[in-house]
Amino acid sequence: MASTMKTANSLLKALNTGSGLSFGAWQMLPGTYLSRTIARSGFDWVCIDTEHGNIADAEMHESVHAVSSVGVSPIVRIAANEGWMVKRALDAGAHGIIVPLLYSVEDAKKLVQSAKFPPVGKRGFGSPFSMGAFDVKGNLSGLEYMNNANEHLLTIVQIETKEALNVVEEIARVDGIDVLFVGPWDLGNNIGHPVRGDFDPELKEAISRVRKAAAAAGKKSGIYCPNGDFARRYADEGFQMISVVNDMTAVPVFMAESLSKAKGTFGHAAAQAVKGAAYGAANIISGQSKV
């Protein structure tokens, strides 16, 4: 059943075919209807964010299967590099995990141990749920899932600390790490160049260093972007796993813009309406979002 898992993982498939380019969306609000709606918008993957999003464990389980039910990869961002969090996300059926707040090569090696079944790692086997996120007809057995998971699930590390940036080339070479994913706002904060509009030259250089480190190690690179313009920029620079928008931006921005058009005040009024309704979304409009 290797082909079943390989085919179902739309992110893995996109990264390994053609241009290797994939676009994803970010879900921060709970709800399976929302998960399916986002997944049906044409993205290769949806990140279900349990770090900064309002998504608890049971809601994460349900969203994983809602996203996968329409042929899109559910990727879970866990809250920290903790083995039990890795287990919960992968046991739910996540096609991959994004792991924040790494500081060292040892952190990356620890993550691989949590994410991979023996003999590569120490992941425990027993979830009755993970198979359904790859095969809705129920033909994929638990044993087949276990035998193919190490090869067909993605382990994605978020590079956002100064310490991780300093050893990013070594992190990229850790066996079992598939993607280096940049969190630009936290990375900017942690290297002393916070985002206050467009990225400083020093932050741009750091972002480029992550991409080059991944490429040199034969790995993929990804980056969080607040909107389509940013996403296009980093696609053109050679990043492969690129987020485009999150729900907490899309909903208030579109609604505020639509209202301002109805009132004949589109532009400044839209930005002000969004600022009042959703602080985080307003930050994205002004180029100051955070991930």
UniProtKB/TrEMBL annotation:
GO MF entry, a single one: aldehyde-lyase activity
Gene Ontology cellular-component terms listed: cytoplasm
Keywords: Lyase, Metal-binding
SUPFAM superfamilies (alphabetical): Phosphoenolpyruvate/pyruvate domain (SSF51621)
Positions of the HpcH/HpaI aldolase/citrate lyase domain: 32-247
Domain of life, per lineage: Eukaryota
Protein family: Belongs to the HpcH/HpaI aldolase family.
Name of the protein: HpcH/HpaI aldolase/citrate lyase domain-containing protein
